[in-house]
Amino acid sequence: MLTVYSEKHKLRDAKTEIFGGELVAPFECPRRAEVILDRITATGLGEVTAPRDYGLDPVLAVHDAGYVGFLESCYADWVADGHKGEAIAMCWPTRSMNSPYIPNNIEGKLGYYALAAETTISDGTWEAALASKDVALTATDHVLAGNPAAFGLCRPPGHHAAADQFGGYCFLNNAAIAAQHALDKGARRVAVLDVDFHHGNGTQSIFYERDDVFFLSIHGDPMEAFPHFLGHADETGKGRGAGYTANYPLPPLADYARWKAALLDAIGKIQAYTPDLLVVSLGVDTFENDPISFFKLAQDDFADCGRCIGAMTIPTVYVMEGGYAIEDIGIVTVNMLSAHDA
Ligand code: Q9C
Ligand code: ZN
């Protein structure tokens, strides 16, 4: 399988994450992409190619213009405001203070545009996020050009990013940008299958009222896991989109037998939808040794999953999402991708 990769992911190198009440070194770090790339090279998965620059149009087809402007200047605005650490949200427009105003002040803006506090905006974050969406778009164009499948080694990840919110280590929603790009290039229907441990709240919210993108996600039950407030089984779409969202929340310690039952159900729905393109939000934080997740998938289970997805024979773009068991994410990611082709 062809891989698209950009060195620019290294520009996203935050020093801090809030975790368990402490400031820690971020789980979502540059080494993640290096480990996966090394495994791709070592196993001879296929050619590795650079992305092209698509500019902002495909971003603005999915994201709010005010949000994009915020991301672009956030770090500079934060520094100009006299702060020494990385930009971080601390105050939100919550249920008890709903207001249509977007603050001028950068601290206020951060609260307005953030959906979680763990993710800082550091110097270089915007440039890395731009390169990450170019990786997803380039992989998509390779598939639209006739490649049966391609892998966008995206970093930073994207599936938690909503039309106008960042968080959960995500800034631009690479999977949503790729899906919308395919539609704009003539695809009639796109399915997004999100296998990251965490619910893809951003992707779901972007397409919730649409029938041209079918979003399906298998994830830790939001009653127990981040992002906590979306991803329940009764969220199935709205308006035209009714029936075009499917959620499979699973309990703590779910193993592959349980996970695969959800996958096979999702595959049945995808096949009935007859999409022109499948986008897989490929998080590998379902792995049993992941430090922040609670599923129990073993290394070989990823190969079985890749086989099941590949057997659909739908043109498929994989975009990298989460996965934090640094020593193993190269192995499990490539297990999945190589089995797709087999
Ligand atoms: N106690 C992705 O995998 N914090 N994002 C979790 C756990 C946020 C994960 C806290 C996790 C975000 C792309
Ligand atoms: Zn995740």
Explain this structure.
With 342 residues, the chain is α/β, with parallel strands linked by helices. The protein has a single domain (2-13, 26-63, 123-341), classed as 3-Layer(aba) Sandwich (Arginase, Chain A). Helices cover 36% and strands 13% of the residues. It has ten helices and ten strands. The strands form two sheets. An eight-stranded parallel β-sheet has the order 4-1-5-10-9-6-7-8, with helices on both faces. Helix 7 (201-207) links the parallel strand 6 and strand 7 (213-220). The protein is globular and about 55 Å long. The termini are close together. The model has no long low-confidence stretch (mean pLDDT 98). Zinc ion is lined by residues 196-198, 283, 285, 321-322.
